[in-house]
Amino acid sequence: MIHMAETKVNESEKPRIGVFVCSCGSNIGGFVDVPSVADYAKTLPDVVYATQNMYTCAEDGLSNIREAIRKHNLNRVIVASCTPRTHAPLFQATCESAGLNKYLFTFVNIREHCSWVHMKEKDLATKKSKDLIRMGVARARLLKPQEEAKVEVEPVGLVIGGGVSGMTAAASLADMGFPVHLVEREGDLGGFVKILNNLYVTEKSAAETIKPLIEKVTAHKNITLHLNSSVKSVEGFIGNYEVGIAPKGGEEKKYKVGTIVVATGALEFVPEGLYGYNQYPNVVTLTEFEILCRKKTLPKLKSVAFIQCVGSRGQKMSYCSRICCNVAIKNAINIADNYEDMLGVMEKQGTLVDKIPVEKKATEEILERRRRRRGRGTEGEGDAEEVKLGPSEKIEVTVFNRDVMAYGVEHELTYNKAREKRVKFNRYTLDHLPKVFMEDNQLKVTYFHETLKLERTMPVDMVVLSTPLVAQPDAGDLSKMLKVPLGQEGFFLEAHVKLRPVDFATDGIYVAGTCKGPADITEAVTQGAAAASRAATPMAKGYVQAEALSSVVDETKCTGCGTCIEVCPYGALRKNEKGIAEVIVAACKGCGCCGATCPEGAITMTNYTDAQLLAEAKAALQEEV
Amino acid sequence: MEKAVMVIGGGVAGIQASLDLADKGLIVHLVEKTPSIGGRMAQLDKTFPTNDCSICILAPKMADCFSHPNTNVITYSEVIGVEGSVGNFKVKVLKKARYVDESKCTGCGECLEKCPSKVVNDWEMGLTTRKAIYIPFMQAVPRVMTIDKEHCLKLTKDKCGNCMKACKRGAINYEMKDQVLEVEVAAIIVATGFDVWDPTPSTEYGYGRYPNVFTAMEYERMINAAGPTHGHIQRRSDKERPRKMAFIQCVGSRNPQVGHPYCCAVCCMHATKESMLAREHYDDIESTIFYKDMRACSKGFYEYVERAKRDYGVRYINSDATVQENADKHNPIVVYDVGGRQQSEEFDLVVLATTLVPKKETAELAKLLGLKVDEFGFLESSDRILGPGRTVKPGIYLAGYAAGPADIPESVAQGSSAAAKAVEAIAQAGG
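Predict the joint structure of the above. Result:
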C-alpha cells in the first residue's frame, strides 16, 4: 500500500530563487569573499533574493530563510555552506516549515569544496564558490516538487538457515514480539555446530551447549519452524516480500514477510588430493576428527599431526578461514587432556584396530558424510586388521602452522595453554609445505625446520587436515533469488565491510554467520542478534519512507528489453504485466545505473533529471558573468 | 514501545547501538565522557582493508546519531550512579560544565584564536598543543567548544576572558556549574571502548627515550591530513621525513610479563595499513613489519597483507624485536633474530603497535553497574557462547572493545546485537 505525503507547491510558478551564502564563522568567511559571492548570486537568472549569514544553520540564519521565503515569495532555496551530509536535513526541514517542498532546496558546498581545500588561494576559492552557486542556480530553476512514497511493512520476519546464527536471529526477533518463519533444509536445527565435539575448551558437548537455544526456538510461540524445507521463490521488496517455502518433495506455500535474514552457513572444504587425504589411512579433516572424538572412536595414537591452512591462504582458496587454528588448538588440548576418554571401546579393552583407514572403522556418520560429498554409494567395509599394542604412552601432538590465528583474549590464552601442555607448534611456509606419505606401513610427515634449516621426518599415527570453511555450493541460487551479491569466494557480500557488517545493500535483507565468511560461534551468534536488530527496525517502525530519488520509466519509450533489471544493484526494477519495466519505488536508491544503461533513454531520475544535470554542466562551463 | 535506553560510550559501537534503538522508535540517552562522540574510530586515519578514510565514513553516522529525533546525546558527561533493575533503572549522569552554551555555540572557532593558553593535545596524542577552549577535532559532534577548566586563565586566575569577548554569539558562560541529571531507562548498553597502552615501562622498545620511536596511534594522527603534521610523516628529532620505517608488533600484548597475555586482535592489520599508507605518502619509503604471527584472519585481510607485500613492497619479518639507537642521528636500531641468529638493522623511524587495554574508568563503572570484569579489566559476558554481550545483570548489555578485543565491524555488529537485546528485554517486560 502506498501513501503519498502531502505537498503544496504550484508548479506553474516562475522560479523565484533565494540564495543564502554562509560564512560559517571564519570557516568559509576567512577564505572566501562571502559578500562578493552573495552579490554575484543576485545577478544570476531568476535569483530574486541573495544574502549572507554568519551562520545559516543557527536559529537566526534559519529564521532568515523562513522570512525570505514568505517576504519574497521564494519557490527555490539555495544554501551555499557546508556539507549536505550533515546539514541538508536541517535546511530541508526549514523550507518545509515555511511551506516549501523540500525537493526545491539545493545545497552548494563551498566549505569542503572551496574554503577548506583552497585556503591559500582566496581569489580562486571565491571564484570557485561563484561557479558552484551558478551551477546550483541552473539546476534549481528546473527542480520540481516531489512526493515521498510511504510503504507499509509486514511485521513478520523470515530467517533462512537453522544454525546458531539463524536460530539466534529468529529467537531475538521472536522475543521482540515479531512472528518469524525459520527455514532449515535439514531435519534438525543446529547447523554445522551440532556435529562438533565441543566448543572452546569446555567439558560440555557442542550439542549440549546449543541445546537451550534449540529448545527455545522450537518452543517459541512466535516462531514457525520449517524443517526439511527450503525457500523456493522470493518476490517483492522491503516490507512486502512474498516467499515460497516448500518442504522436501512437498508443495510450495506462500508467506508474506517484511524482512529477511540470510544465515545459511558454510561447509568444510574437502581436501581431495591434498596431503594424502583419501589416499592414506588415518588422514582426516578437522571436522572428521571432531566426530571421532565426539563418538569416542579414536584409534590408539601416539602421535598426531595437525596441518593448518590446507586449501586456504593461497593453497586452492586465497583467504584465511579464521577459525581453524583455534579449532585445531582446542582439539590438540582435548587429546592431550582426555585422549583416553575418547578412545574406541575396543581400544580401551586392549585389543585394537590400528593403522587402518579411518574409513573402515570410523563411525557411520563420517562414512555417510564422505559418501554424500563424493556422491557415491556404500562400499564393502572389509575386515579390519587387528594389531596388539602395549599400554598407551603420553600422546604427542604437533601443529604445523603458518601463522597461529589465536586472536583476542580467549583464543590466545587457549593457545598458551596448549603450549604448556607440550603441544608443539611448527611453522611452515609456502616454500616448504609439509609432506604426508606412507613408508613401511607407517604414516609419516616431512617438514622443514625453519630454525635449523633442515628437512625432518616424523612418524605419526594420524594426520588431521585443517581445511577452510567454504561457501555453500548453492549460495548462488539464493543470491539470485534475493538479488543480493556474493563476494569473490562465494560468501555473501555485506553492504559495507566496516560499518554495515550484517546489512545487504538492498534494504530489507540482512546477513549473519558463516554464510558471509568464516566466524567462530561467538561471532556468529553476535551477528545473528545484530541482523535481528537490523531486520526489526523497519518492522518496529511499521513503514519505510522512500526518498523521492527514484528512477521513472517512460512507458512510451520502454521496449521491455530488461537491461535495467539486470544492472539494478537493488532489485528495484521488474517487468509489469505489459512487459514493460516498472520501478519499485521503495527499493530504488536512485543510483542511476538503469538510466545510464537504458538503450532507449526511457529512464530518468526524479530530482536528477537529464535536463537538470545538463543545465548544471553547462553552467559550469560558462564564464563568470 | 516507548521506553528509553541508555548507551554509555559514544564510539562506533555505542553510536550503532543508539541508531538501531532510535530507528525503532525508542528514546536513547547516549552518555559520552569526552566533548564529542566518535570515539577511537574518529581518531584513525584510514580503515583496513579498504583504506577508506575513517572519519569520512563515520562522520555521517555521528551526525545521524546526534540529530536523530529520538536521541539525547549527552557529551562531556559521566554515569555516577545507578539504581533499580531491568525495566526501571534510575541513572545519575554528571554533566560537566563546559562553560560554553551548547545551544548558542556554532563551533566557528573565533574564540580559539584569542585564547592564550597552550595545553597538551590528547586527541593528537600529545604531538601538538591545543587551546584551553577547544573543539577536539574538526568534525566533532556536537560542533561546540569546551573550556578546559584546569588550564583556562579566567577560571583558574580570573584573568583573560578573551573568549567571551571574541564570541559574537554570547555562548561563553564562566558561571556554568556541573549538573547531575537523573534519567530513567529500561536498559543500559555499555560501550566504553579502549585506551592505548603506554609502552614507556617496556624499556626494550626505547619509547620516550629515543625520539624517533612512535606509537601506532601517534603515527595515525601524523599521517592524517587533519593531524598535527598535516599528513606529513616527521621524525621527532629533526622533522625530517623517514625513508626506512619499522613496525614492531605485539608491544605489550601477548606478553604476560606486562600483564597482557592476550592478543589485541587489530594491530597486525593496522600495521599493514600504516605501512601501505606510508608508501602512498612517499613512494620511495620502505617499511618492514616485525611480527609474531600475522593475524590477518577476517574477510579480505589475508589478501590485504599479500597486496601490501606485492604492491607496496612491505617486508614482513617473523621475529620479536627490540629497539636500540644510533645516537648520532637518533636513528633507531631494531634488533631481531632470524633462524636463531641475532640481526640488527638501522631505521629512520619505528612505530610500536602497542596493545589496547580497557579504559581505566570501565572498572569503576563495572562496580557501579554490578558487572564482572576479567583479570585484564574487560567487561565479561555471562555466557560467551550463546549470549555474548549479555551480563550477569539483566537489562545491561555490552558492545565494542570494552568487552574484549574487536575490530570496527565486530564492534558495529556488537552494537546492533546489544540493541536487539535491549529491545527484547523491553518487549518481554511488556513495554
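Residues 34 and 587 of chain A are 41 Å apart (CA to CA).
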